[in-house]
Each structure stands twice: as structure tokens, then as C-alpha cells.
Specification:
With 355 residues, this protein is of the alpha/beta class. The chain has 15 helices and 11 strands. It has a single domain, classed as TIM Barrel (Alpha-Beta Barrel). The protein has helices spanning 9-14, 35-44, 47-52, 54-67, 81-85, 107-111, 123-136, 149-158, 166-174, 176-200, 217-234, 257-261, 276-283, 302-316, 336-349, and strands spanning 73-74, 90-93, 97-100, 142-147, 204-209, 238-239, 242-243, 246-250, 267-269, 288-293, 322-326. β2 (90-93) and β3 form a beta hairpin. α2 runs antiparallel to α4. The protein is globular and about 60 Å long. The mean pLDDT is 97.
């Protein structure tokens, strides 16, 4: 039996309910900027081994909460767990990022794809979620996540990271029906995967669309947003007597926030290139907003960090429905004490906006 939540300010903010202050957490808050994370990864032997060991995944998920008074924990995992479970030969090469040994580029490749069973193919993730939830003991909510079908698809087709997405954009324009077939499988797999995380204890879920901003507007709606909307419709929305909020985040997606808000998501992540006042006007109060301090601000001294936190809070303005976060993940070479300065500034300055 999971303990009741002692701190639910994050969940209330996502649902635009009254909060006494602005909740705060960081994308990639469990990561290489923490020396304790690097020590655990060294014990695990590799990034993939770290992800696939529930004990280690739990350990690194909880590490930032021991340092900072954050308002949420996020499952430590990777957006490429689904293609890994599809037997596409995923590997992480030092200094080069993820590599897919069997890229998906032909109709036969797409025909071979399947929806992994979380109870077997992704058991290490659902086991990690259950363990983290127990170990949290109700301190803060646990966020589950997945990559967007478009973003996961870029790695599946390109075979790794890419600057111009030549293979998948080539497929998009030359064989759009084939790309839609692939994205359909990934979408169905993602819905099953997120629901398994919710069943195991995740109290909110987030969809990371890292590469949606690389698309032209019409293609973004057709090949990225429409599939995220299917995920929003397909995930479990209530568990343990309360709503499970869904957050969508498209890096570089500021010009499409109104379309994102129309999906039925509870909250939209905003990167640092869009002013929150503009985002709030564009979404017209339909969703909560999450963000959006430039991650590079954390290279500055604490007094500058405090000033920039104040700027972000003022940009959103008075009222509820704001979750403070970075506009993307924290950089690996940021000093932990600078992340702490950001969290402290949010705690100090945000209550004025909730009176």
C-alpha cells in the first residue's frame, strides 16, 4: 500500500488548482551534474545497465530529492526503452549518444515492429516505478514518461541522433503512409507503456517531443501532434482516487502551444525561447504551463540565477497553474549548488504570486 502524499503541490498546479507557491522540479534532475549519480553509474557499468536495474534506477531517481526540496520525482529511464524492447539493437556509445543497430527504413522493417508487453519486455521499468513509489513514501509525486512517437521514430529511422533528419524526413515526404504505419505502432506501444507506469505507481506522465520543433507546421500537426493527442486520449486519467495529469512538451514548439492545448493534455511544457506571458495568452487558460528558465542560466552566479527566476515567475504572473522548470534538461557540467540556488529562489519568490 502506497503512502498518502505529503506534498501534492505539483499535482495541484498541473490541474490549475490553488497552490500556496509555485512547485519546482528539473528535467534531467537525476543526471550527470550530480557526483552521486556518476558514482552510481560507475557501479552499474553502463547507462543501459543503470536504466535496466530497478535498484540503481531507484537510487538515482531519489538522489536529487536528498539534495534539493523538489516537488516531484521523475522516473530515471530513457525515451528509447520502447525501440530497445522492439529488438532494434539499441546501444549507447560514449560521447556519441544512442545508436540503433537495426534502423527502420523499409516496409519489411515496419512489418516486423510489435507492441512490447510491459510485463515482460519492459518489466525493469515497471519494477523501477513500483520501487521508487514505495521508497518515496509519499514525500512527493512520481512522474512517469515516454518519448513522443515522432521523436522516438527519428532515432528508429535515423539509427541515432541526427542534424537534418534526412532518412525520416525522406520517408515523410516520399512514403508518408509507411511513416504513419510506423508511428501508429509506436503510439500504441507508448499508450500501453505509460499505462503500465501508471498502474505501477506513476502519478503524472510526461511526453517528451524533443525533435518536433524540426518539423514544418503542417507536418508537425500530422506526424507529431496527432500522435501525442492519441496518447492523451489513450492513457489512464484516474488512479488511486485522483486525476493522473498528462504533460506534453515539444522543444521548439512555442508557435504551436494553442494546438497542443487542444489535445486535452492537462499541462504543456514550454522551452526557454517562448515568453510565459505569451504562452499563457496563447493557451487561454486551458492548460497549466511548465517551464521555462534557460538551462544555461545555471552557469551564472546565484544572484543572477535569482534574478532570472524572478523574471520567469513575473512572466507567468499571478495565479495558479504554473510549474517552474528549466526550458529543457539541466546540462551535465552545471554546479549542483547552482541548481540549488534556483530551487531556493522559486521557494522564496513564488508565494507572492499565489495570494
Amino acid at each position: 500500500m502506497n503512502a498518502p502524499l505529503a506534498n501534492d503541490v505539483f499535482l495541484r498546479a498541473l490541474l490549475r488548482q490553488p497552490t500556496e507557491r509555485t512547485p519546482v522540479w528539473m528535467m534531467r534532475q537525476a543526471g550527470r551534474y550530480l557526483p552521486e549519480y556518476r558514482a552510481t553509474r560507475a557501479k552499474a557499468g553502463s547507462f543501459l545497465s543503470l536504466c535496466m536495474n530497478p535498484d540503481y534506477a531507484c537510487e538515482v531517481t531519489l538522489q536529487p530529492l536528498e539534495r534539493f526540496p523538489l516537488d516531484a520525482a521523475i522516473l530515471f529511464s530513457d525515451i528509447l526503452t520502447i525501440p530497445h524492447a522492439m529488438d532494434l539493437d539499441l546501444a549507447f556509445e560514449a560521447g556519441e549518444g544512442p545508436k540503433i543497430g537495426k534502423p527502420v527504413r523499409t516496409a519489411a522493417d515496419v512489418d516486423a515492429l510489435f507492441v512490447p508487453d510491459p510485463a515482460t519486455d519492459l518489466k525493469y521499468v515497471v519494477d523501477a516505478v513500483a520501487l521508487i513509489r514505495r521508497e518515496l513514501g509519499g514525500r512527493v509525486p512520481l512522474i512517469g514518461f515516454a518519448g513522443s512517437p515522432w521523436t522516438v521514430g527519428t532515432y528508429m529511422v535515423e539509427g541515432g541522433g541526427s542534424k537534418n533528419f534526412a532518412h525520416i524526413k525522406g520517408m515523410l515526404y516520399a512514403e508518408p503512409a509507411l511513416l504513419h504505419r510506423m508511428l501508429d505502432v509506436v503510439t500504441r506501444a507508448t499508450i500501453v507503456y505509460l499505462n503500465a507506469q501508471i498502474d505501477s505507481g506513476a502519478q503524472a506522465v510526461m511526453v517528451f517531443d524533443t525533435w518536433g520543433g524540426a518539423l514544418a507546421p503542417a507536418q508537425y500537426r500530422e506526424f507529431s501532434l496527432d500522435y501525442m493527442a492519441r496518447i492523451v486520449a489513450g492513457v489512464t486519467h484516474e488512479r488511486e482516487g485522483r486525476r493522473v495529469p498528462v504533460v506534453l512538451f515539444t522543444k521548439g514548439g512555442g508557435r504551436w502551444l494553442d494546438h497542443m492545448a487542444a489535445t486535452g493534455a492537462d499541462a504543456i511544457g514550454v522551452d526557454w525561447t517562448t515568453d510565459l506571458a505569451d504562452a499563457r495568452a496563447l493557451t487561454a487558460g486551458k492548460v497549466a504551463l511548465q517551464g521555462n528558465l534557460d538551462p544555461c542560466v545555471l552557469y551564472a552566479q546565484p544572484e543572477v540565477i535569482r534574478q532570472e527566476v524572478a523574471r520567469v515567475l513575473a512572466s507567468y504572473g499571478a495565479g495558479h497553474g504554473h510549474v517552474f522548470n528549466l526550458g529543457h534538461g539541466i546540462h551535465p557540467d552545471v554546479k549542483p549548488e547552482h541548481a540549488g540556488a534556483m530551487v531556493a529562489a522559486v521557494h522564496e519568490l513564488s508565494p507572492a504570486y499565489h495570494r
